[in-house]
Amino acid sequence: MKYFSSLNQTIALTMVLFLASCSGGGNQKKQPEAATPGQVTANTVKVTDESQKLLKYLEETGDYVNGRNFPSLIKASAVNKELESNIHIIDLRDPKAFTKGHIKGAVNVEFTKIPDYFTNVIKPFGYSKIVMVCYAGQIASYTTSLLRLMGYGNVYALRWGMSGWNKDFAKDSWLTAVSDKYEDKLELTENQRAEANDFPQLNTGKSTGEEIMAARFKSVFAAGYADAFTSAEKVFEQPKNFYTINYERKDKYDAGHIPGAVRYKPNGTLGIVSEMESIPSGKEVAVYCGTGHNSAFVTAYLRLFGYNAKTIPYGNNAFMHKTMVEKKEKLSWLPFTEAEIDNLPYVKN
Q: Are residues 145 and 300 in contact, defined by beta-carbon separation less than 8 angstroms?
């Protein structure tokens, strides 16, 4: 009887161990969680050496893109109040547009000459603020992002550009750019991210993060800004040609987005390797937000790392303006209307 009792105990113990192993108990490693919507699981990809150094350098120098000052925008009314103070205004528009009208005290500087201007012409930190100005705000945002990343922490982009300064400038820019053209083509499906891949090869030949940053900074400015922009029309008509990034809150994304667009979280994407690895390094990347300001900041960061990124000017305003107006309060949209224009004085020369 003792024999059978011992045998029964042995069998019972064996069954317990068997069931525990099947149920994932004991010391069994936890299985990876299923990918959440909009994400894919993939093996970790080793980041290129220069990109690693650049990432580390930017993190050590303040991690601007994940800070509360990103993006650095300023309203026309705020700039106007400080015109007589220690503020410096740089107008990036072409000389003809500048001559027809500009903010008092502003200087006209070509985009490609900005690095030299900051290094050899002015003492940037001698000003309380340096305000970048353009037509609609996106070029200024793109420029400001690069300058901030380089360490110029007193630089701002004028929100809405000269369109927000006076209606004379808005009529040929923001007021003609707002559109409902693609309201009926908006997609509601949540799209998955691409498989993880390596960052683009930078090939600056530099050995430190600081040197790599300086080289990329000069290179991006030397290339001009034309290739850093695309249009809503191109992306809607040929969505498969782009990896489209919606840089917005989830509720805004869910309200309707460009077909194929994948949402990336503001303040939770740039500088984070696991997030950036899902952005294809060999494809055109179209980035958009509500107004084109934030996406221009994002585009500058991505191009600094070698991505073929392009921002969509005017953002959602360029294709779903009506919806933005209707749901302004509910979703905190920023649809451009004449209410955004301050009609401030300007000078000509």
A: yes
